[in-house]
Write a structure and sequence with these properties.
This protein is an alpha+beta fold and 688 residues long. Helix content is 56%, strand content 8%.
């Protein structure tokens, strides 16, 4: 044991002297430098559990001098590494020799009399033994199927910093594949395993000497495995990362940054995050690779200063012509993680994606759509291109993938007509292809976008109803309510689901047991109640689920442009009435009444005194915001479409105004628009 310690110290002394002789101008002492060898598998290929690389840590003076400490103290010295110093560092890697499935590093030998051949021979023999032990370790690691298997395997091998990172990373990879209940069980057993504490002790002792990637991966694995953040282990690793931050390359920085994003704020986390931002800002001018720029952008996080985000944006724009299709696809998620909506970058990336969309993998397209939602980026050309591509290659995607696409488009308020029609045909022909989760997602997408396949609407709704009926015995009450509500928006009353929803115990649970969702449940139940009352095609009598709630009335001057145009068009303020409250809680922005016999407008006071409602034709003018329409169209979304349908049942001809577009019109154009909508209603009132 004593001999091994002496050998270790002697090896460290030899490496230090070699580094000093390779660059004698170094005056600052450096932290321990590690030359490490990783054994490969028997076939010579890299194992998923072992990361094959040439591992050499260059002297500390070659790195940037930005250092960060947890005591809220930051010091920054501008990096000034000359070309000669870099050349000297590269000279340390004199030769690379690959032998028997392993990678070895031979340093350039200075002509020193104290290095003897006997010492070299002995080191070679120990290296051969070490390769054999490493091979056995990684073979055993590949056979592990659970975190406890890894710990049992580690107990049969000497604990070494060389193996710690691989062991922890493997434990995390095995854990992340499990279901939530299995994860909790495996973590509890793992924490109780006696070898786990020894592994943690080794991490704390060797963190200062680990290779930078090993340190980053170990921190990531420890946090993801659920080790509490306030433990000495996690805090020690955070402090060591601060001290060695200048040694980290772009990949290590990315791993650390990703880890910090999921951690709670504390002094060490905030200090390390600040250090990352300083280091990224320092390295921006020297980065020429778009991929490296994206890595840096991911590192800084959404809490970074706006000035730093702008510098990265300008750097990307200066290299925008170098973007490859994968770069363009990845840029959306990078900007989303930064929480920075750069329209010039997003526009250029959108064009690149559309031009090269053929063969784009599923997850990349889905990530682009989800990132657009996070960034509040609405590009109908991009969305249409993705939707048309998915529809044209429909045979390539399974049901779950198409459902995820539909949900992503629904979150963007975009209605992909061709894709939705194609998917509806598949549902009709293969009704058993949907599970409960798929049914809920499909109902939500089709109802909120208010889309039904033309000519197959009833068949499609009946197929969804039959699919839902299979899950009624075990459906949650909240899911039941959402499903019925979606059907009601589409104008369909699902009888078995309605009967189950209107049971007293179900209603009581929704109104009292849902806690924070009570207000939302009331709104959904009220909508269901109105549908039962107005669309009486149900064998179930309309139930008084809730008292009728009135829609909040806007102030009389809420739509002044529309009111001014109506006054100009009708020439009498008494011929239209603003803010009219109707039955069932509905309200309309402006009401106009026309005498059917005389073909002229009827003042509101005369209409109130009239006893013969059949002689009056009513026009309801609705002013809707942009959010009430599907993106890039005047197609009303679910709730507005249901209101329009119910107003027609109440005897109104509905004039729908896209209010933001109406505001942009000149007065003459606005008058012509309303004149055409209102007076053309006389031809259609009978059919409404």
């Amino acid at each position: 044991m004593m001999s091994r310690k002496m050998n270790k110290k002697l090896d460290c002394l030899i490496r230090t002297i070699r580094q000093m002789q390779a660059c004698p101008s170094a005056v600052n002492p450096c932290s321990r430098t590690v030359v490490r060898t990783y054994a490969l598998g028997a076939s010579g290929h890299k194992s998923p559990c072992s990361r094959q690389r040439l591992l050499y840590e260059s002297p500390c003076w070659l790195h940037s001098s930005a250092r960060v400490f947890s005591q809220d103290t930051f010091s920054m010295i501008t990096e000034n590494t000359s070309a000669n110093e870099q050349k000297a560092a590269n000279g340390l890697l004199h030769d690379q020799t690959q032998n028997s499935g392993s990678v070895t590093v031979e340093l350039s030998r200075p002509s020193s009399s104290f290095i003897v051949t006997a010492e070299t021979d002995r080191s070679t023999g120990e290296e051969t033994d070490e390769k054999s032990a490493s091979q056995k370790y990684f073979d055993d690691l590949r056979r592990c199927t659970s975190p406890c298997d890894v710990l049992d395997m580690v107990s049969r091998h000497p604990i070494s910093p060389k193996y710690v990172s691989n062991s922890l990373a493997t434990m995390w990879m095995l854990t992340k594949k499990l279901l939530d209940d299995q994860k909790r069980y495996e973590r509890r057993v793992m924490f109780e395993h006696p070898q786990f504490s020894q592994l943690c002790q080794c991490v704390m002792q060797e963190a200062k000497y680990m290779w930078r990637d090993d340190l980053a991966y170990s921190l990531h694995a420890v946090v993801k495995l659920g080790v509490p953040q306030n433990t000495r282990l996690v805090q020690t690793m955070l402090r060591v990362c601060q001290e060695r931050l200048n040694e980290f390359d772009d990949r290590s920085l990315s791993i650390v940054a990703t880890t910090l994003q999921g951690m709670e704020k504390c002094k060490n986390v905030e200090a390390l995050q600040a250090g990352l931002q300083l280091l990224v800002e320092q390295r921006i001018p020297k980065i020429s690779s778009v991929f490296m720029l994206q890595t840096m952008m991911k590192c800084i996080g959404e809490d970074s200063p706006l000035s730093l985000k702008a510098k990265l944006e300008n750097k990307i724009l200066s290299q925008i012509n170098q973007l490859t299709p994968p770069n363009a696809q990845h840029m959306f998620s990078v900007l989303a993680k930064m929480n920075y909506r750069s329209l010039p970058i997003l526009s250029a990336c959108s064009d690149k994606i559309i031009e090269n969309i053929e063969g784009t993998p599923f997850w990349r397209l889905l990530t682009v759509l989800r990132s657009c939602k996070d960034l509040l980026y609405r590009n109908t050309v991009l969305f249409s291109g993705i939707a048309d591509y998915v529809a044209s290659t429909f045979y390539m995607w399974d049901t779950k993938q198409v459902v995820l696409f539909l949900s992503a488009f629904e979150n963007l308020s975009f209605r992909p007509v061709t894709l939705m029609d194609t998917f509806a045909e598949k549902v009709i022909s293969h009704p058993n292809s949907l599970n409960m989760k798929d049914i809920m997602a499909v109902l939500r997408a089709y109802s909120l976008l208010h889309h039904l396949p033309e000519g197959q609407d009833q068949q499609f709704l009946e197929t969804l109803n039959s699919a839902l009926n299979r899950y009624l015995p075990r459906i949650a009450n909240m899911d039941l309510l959402k499903a019925v509500y979606s059907f009601c928006i589409l104008g369909y009353l699902p009888q078995p689901a309605l009967h189950q929803l209107l049971q007293d115990e179900v209603l009581n649970d929704l109104m009292t047991g849902a806690g924070k969702n009570t207000e939302q449940n009331e709104m959904l139940l009220h909508a269901v109640n109105v549908c039962l009352a107005l669309e009486g095609h149900s064998v179930i009598k309309p139930a008084t689920v809730l008292p009728v709630e009135k829609e909040p009335l806007p102030p009389s001057s809420h739509f002044p442009e529309v009111q001014e145009v109506l006054l100009t068009l009708l020439e009498d303020a008494s011929l239209f009435r603003p803010n009219v409250q109707l039955t069932h809680g509905y309200s309309i922005d402006f009401e106009i009444q026309i005498n059917a016999n005389r073909k002229k407008m009827v003042p509101s006071n005369e209409a109130d005194q009239s006893t013969d409602d059949s002689s009056l034709h009513r026009v309801a003018v609705l002013c809707a915001p942009v959010s009430a329409f599907c993106l890039g169209s005047r197609h009303p979304r679910g709730r507005l479409a249901m209101k329009m349908r119910h107003l027609r049942l109440l005897g109104y001809h509905v004039v729908l105004i896209h209010y933001p577009e109406f505001q942009k019109l000149k007065k003459d154009a606005a008058i012509e628009l309303l004149k055409g909508e209102i007076f053309s209603s006389e031809e259609h009132l009978g059919s409404d």
